[in-house]
Amino acid sequence: MTPQIYHVDAFTTEPFRGNSAGVVLNADGLSDAQMQLIARELRHSETAFLLNSDDSDVRIRYFTPTVEVPICGHATVAAHYVRSKVLGLRDCTVWQTSLAGRHRVDILSEGDDLRIALEQGAPVFEPPLEGKTRAAILTALGLDENDMLPGLPVQVASTGHSKVMVPLKPEVDIDALSPDLSALAAISQQIGCNGFFPFLIRPGKTETDGRMFSPAIGIAEDPVTGNANGPMGAWLVHHGLMTHDGHLLRIRGHQGRAIGRSGVVDITVTIRDNQPEKVTISGRAVILFHADLAILV
User: Fold this and answer.
1) Cα–Cα distance list, 241 to 149, 201, 202 (Å)
2) CATH homologous superfamily for 124-282?
């Protein structure tokens, strides 16, 4: 079957908002090199390639313009939105495999449209980044200790694809950040984590504002990031920063405003013994256009 390329904006219902992703259906005949070239040509932060799977409903590979990555939240939402529209799926569960493992994806009706919910991997927290490393991260982001929520670590958190959590005071103008991308890329090589996620909690609300910088893998700034907002939700529970009922916490993560691509990630954290046990992210999407892939290298 001819590969089909889709341009999708995820974590939004408005065209040209949220986070754009490439989605390639019928990608089984493409080589690794071809997938990388297509991702480079499309220039989305990630492009998802959908392939047949022996043990799941679909296998997905994810490429930035420069490298393959294990999984991507917004490209997963985009991929399953496209697949569900093409196959007529609604109110069902499908399973996908990727380099990050096997994940449950729920296809949910929302009015006449769809919401895609991805169950992420188990939350993992690395030791805090301290001393010179912490100072270098703050300096590269254009921050100092006066901008930070007191008593909290700068820390790598993951639900499948790690990000550095950088918790800011609510009065910080997060939209004004202008990081040193070269310095962040160099730090990524030192700490083994390619994304930096400064965020703040909206006063009195279970809502956050964040930005995500990942220059080490060719992404200066990602508009709306499932793989940052998901671990952020787990991180907030881990450090006791949001009130919950002991079983569940729901958060809305806002991102993209600073670069004109506002979007929202809905985050659900299930809790056991006051610690995060499981994280699910969900969002909407809109298809801008699609086309046959007519030329293969």
Assistant:
1) 11, 9, 12
2) Diaminopimelate Epimerase; Chain A, domain 1 (3.10.310.10)
The class (CATH top level) of 4-120+285-292 is alpha beta
Six token digits for residue 123: 């939350």
Instruction: Determine the Cα–Cα distance for residues 281 and 115; give it in Å rounded to an integer.
Output: 10
Q: Please determine whether the domains at 4-120+285-292 and 124-282 fall in the same fold group of CATH.
A: yes
DSSP element (H, E) containing 6 = strand 4-10
On whether the CB atoms of residues 216 and 179 are closer than 8 A, the answer is no
Tell me whether residue 85 is exposed, middle or buried, using C-beta atoms within 10 angstroms of its C-beta: 0 to 12, 13 to 18, 19 or more: middle
How far apart, in whole angstroms, are the C-alpha atoms of residue 166 and residue 280?
A: 21
Evaluate whether 261 touches 16 at the Cβ level (below 8 Å). Answer: yes
Query: Tell me: the pLDDT tens digits for 87-143?
Result: 999 999 999 999 989 999 999 999 999 999 999 989 999 999 999 999 999 999 999
Residues labelled catalytic: 46
Q: What is the pLDDT of residues 28-49, one digit of tens each?
A: 999 999 999 999 999 998 999 9
Sequence spans of domains, the chain: 4-120+285-292, 124-282
Please give the Cα distance from 161 to 211 (Å, whole number).
16
Q: How far apart are CA 163 and CA 167, in angstroms?
A: 12
Please name the amino acid found at residue 41: E
Nearest to 149 by CA among 77, 201, 192: 201
Kindly report the pTM of this predicted structure: 0.92
For residues 135 and 85, give the distance between their C-alpha atoms in angstroms, rounded to a whole number. Answer: 47
Contacts of 68 (CB under 8 A, 6+ apart): 32, 35, 36, 61, 62, 99
